[in-house]
Amino acid sequence: MTIKLTAGLIVVIASYSAVAKDNKLSEDPTKVVTQLGASYSDEIKVSGSLSLDAVRKLNASISLESEEWRFGGSWLFDIGIVNFNFGKQSFDRGAEKTSYSVGTFMPLSYFDIAPMGWQIFAMGGYSHTEGDIACELDSNACPIIVSNY
Q1: With pLDDT > 70 as the criterion, what percentage of the chain qualifies?
Q2: CA dist 101 to 67, 114, 124, Å?
Q3: How many other C-beta atoms are found inside a 10 Å radius of the C-beta of residue 69?
């Protein structure tokens, strides 16, 4: 089991204060939309997002041929955004990984910090990942696992 605590600071994004919802560009990652899609790359995957309102959305994807899935969402507030994500991935020979995460970021301009008009974001979050590896019992191909916390 691996537990990883991540807290990052200072990601610089060249933008000014928050843009009103009506003025958002179609590729803006904070734009909340409902969409559904499917893809094929060795397996069929269905994914989509559901807009709950102008500032909240849920995302999900599932593989129709394996046990892989992902569920997450985001809530946009005046002071920042909160994201969460849960998921499971399957790999060859029965190996799998399950992960959970929650994170947030907020603009430092909320505290009147915007040097030269740049928007600086402080980020923080928590991530937990656990999984199994697969190896053949009759070979020496199994790696030695060293965990660092």
Answers
A1: 69
A2: 19, 29, 11
A3: 15
Binned at pLDDT 50, 70 and 90, residue 63 comes out as very high
pLDDT of 90: 84
Q: Which residue has the tokens 């970021």?
A: 105
Q: Which residue shows structure tokens 């402080």?
A: 122
76 DSSP β-pair partners: 81
At residue 42, does pLDDT exceed 50?
yes
Distance of CA 103 to the CA centre of its chain: 8
H or E stretch at 101:
strand 96-107
Number of other CB atoms surrounding residue 103 within 10 Å = 18
Inter-residue contact 67 to 84 (CB < 8 Å): no
Q: Give the Cα separation of 108 and 102 in Å (integer).
A: 20
Q: Which of 81, 48, 76, 51 is nearest to 62 (CA)?
A: 48
Tokens of 25: 């560009």
pTM of the model: 0.64
The C-alpha atoms of residue 32 and residue 51 are separated, in whole angstroms, by: 6
